[in-house]
């Protein structure tokens, strides 16, 4: 899959941009805060119908403007796909494929698989379980629409049950109905996550040890209350506790994926270099996983990834991305040398863009 053209209007600090990309390597050069990451985020938005930087769509509209518009022209499976995402204050977000608006945006997820490696990945190491659940959910959802549907059903039922608990609902039949619906979705999610861990871990381990040039033992430990009891039993056993708390205290919404180095948590004993290697390896493993699951080569976005890495790890990352298994790559950096080294490593067509105060221009190749 290739992103041929990208048009941006009023997205974050970018007033307007029209970019035509190389089929292989595309470099964004500029100082911090100039807009490089926002361009990558615009590409991310076209794939996921949301920003990687903010949970609120309103924050994507450039300050002082009433709307934003993103348009991308893709070559996918031998066909041209035109995707647009628009937000106008006071109106519903619009996502269109070839001019036809989606009835449900979830129908778009997985069409344009993408992997973003960014400094925010540090939160997977030091953040709470929500960060790691989000990683798992986004990976599986891009390749499995049934999993995404189960997540949507679970979250709706969970919200309804929490409202009932908070309001002191005493109708046992209503709780029985909601609990059955919640439990069915939970078991689907749990089964998919368990299967994902088994398939994903060996890929991740291979990338981690290649980048670090070592044989350290790393693993992903799936921790779920459903390892001990089925969801329906958890809801029954904790019902009185949940009534006092006013929310559902156990379930797959509290799952965690512990990131391990040997028998210890990476966040407790890992060096900066080890942690950075860990997150990059997770993303490269995500790339392989999505490629196999979707049957399409994802876009790879590398946002300022060389910070805190020694020269050996940088060189090994160059070797990875130069492999023919990787398709179109977008990479941002403040250092022209890093970009030139990536271009030489990949040894294919490329384009370089400078980004300054939200203004993008193509540099001479």
From TrEMBL:
Superkingdom assignment: Bacteria
Residues the entry annotates as binding ATP: 30-37
A Pfam family per the record: SMC_N
Record domain RecF/RecN/SMC N-terminal: where: 3-346
Membrane-crossing residue ranges in chain numbering: none
One Gene Ontology cellular component annotation held by this UniProt entry: cytoplasm
Entries under InterPro entries matching the protein: DNA-binding_RecF, DNA-binding_RecF_CS, P-loop_NTPase, RecF/RecN/SMC_N, RecF_2
Signal peptide location: none
Keyword Nucleotide-binding (UniProt): yes
GO molecular function list: ATP binding; single-stranded DNA binding
UniProt keyword terms in alphabetical order: ATP-binding, Cytoplasm, DNA damage, DNA repair, DNA replication, DNA-binding, Nucleotide-binding, SOS response
GO biological process: DNA replication; DNA synthesis involved in DNA repair; double-strand break repair; SOS response
Location of the protein in the cell: Cytoplasm
Task of the protein: The RecF protein is involved in DNA metabolism; it is required for DNA replication and normal SOS inducibility. RecF binds preferentially to single-stranded, linear DNA. It also seems to bind ATP.
Family in the record: Belongs to the RecF family.
Name of the featured protein: DNA replication and repair protein RecF
Name of the coding gene: recF
